[in-house]
Amino acid sequence: MMSLKLSVAAALIVIGVSAAHAQDSDDLGLLRSAAIAGDARAQFTLASRYYRGLGVQQDYEQAVELYRQGADQGFAPAQVRLGQMYEHGLGLAQSYGRAMTLYRMAAVQGDPQAQYDLAMLYETGKGGREDYAQALEWFRKAAEQGEPDAEEEVGYFYQRGFLGARDYQQAQAWYKRAAEHDCANAQNQLGYMVQLGLGVSQDYVQALDWYYKAAAQGNPNAQENIGYMYQHGLGVEVDYLEAQNWFYKAAGQGNSNAENQLGYLYQYGLGVPQDFVQALAWYRMAADQDNKTAMDNLATVSAILKSGEPGVWDSANAAVQRAAEMQAARRVRIANLQRQIIDLESDAQREESLAADLSESNPQAVKGTNALGPLGALQLRKEANHFRAEAARLRGELAGLNVLSAAAGSAQ
Asked: Where are the alpha helices (DSSP H) in 252-291?
């Protein structure tokens, strides 16, 4: 009887999976038909399937073609994504100039993602030269539409005084706007400002409160900052084990300051047995990311090991090199997953926004958006769910990579 029940359950699972595949095939068929008919939304959505490899084989070339078709119709989301592919060299020869052109075309239409991406090119100088005035102008445009990362960037410009005197009050105001929109970087910056007393009274307890909020979202800088507070007893009692715990969380995401701090704990035996090999390993990992303090610490510990018993340095250095290479590979994978998750969530929001446009307006009156028909909004919401499901799957994979314990971090 039990085997029969199991067989029936297995059959139901197979039927459910088959039905899901059949439905997805129908969805793709509808998108293809609408894309061929010239519907810019369908072209964008189908391109995103190829870009992600969702329900189809990942194919950047096909994605580029479909995004270009939408971009040529003046469809801002397609212009943004095509610009991102040029910026990062995905399926195309990298070209910051072409990325900037596409971002600008979408930005003047009021697209906040395009405004943010354009501002980033100006801030970093990748578009030709650094231009903080242009960067701030476009960050503001995106921020005024409630784009959290842009709000945080505006705050950062005021904090650093990129266009004049530092203005900590303005910085805090923008950071608080971003923090209210759950921007973890802004929450971390608010913690940093109150920790140091920048424009406000110094308050370690309040700083920790902001750091915890950011850390709850997985922000590695906030995790490292919490570890530092415990290491030095700022607002809390000194607790090296708790500090180590938070440093491991941050180092698990490749935070070089946390890696350096772990090396320091091992070098001086703070909360852990003194271990120069472990110290060497963590300093090497941080130094590989150009952390200047870690480079100095690495030189110091290397000299100590080289002056010891013959053979100790060679065996330690070989083990450390393997550990550093493994950590570097983890960092790359983590960065890729984080970027994919951000993009997938952005795509889901895009699809929801496009669906809302179709629901609230006459599709016939919107250029290049009439081929999806009366079920267009429903179809786009289905696509949003596809992207969210994939983002959730990748978050599970990322969570496994982010977990780094003392045992896992050992340079054995």
From this structure: 256-268, 276-287
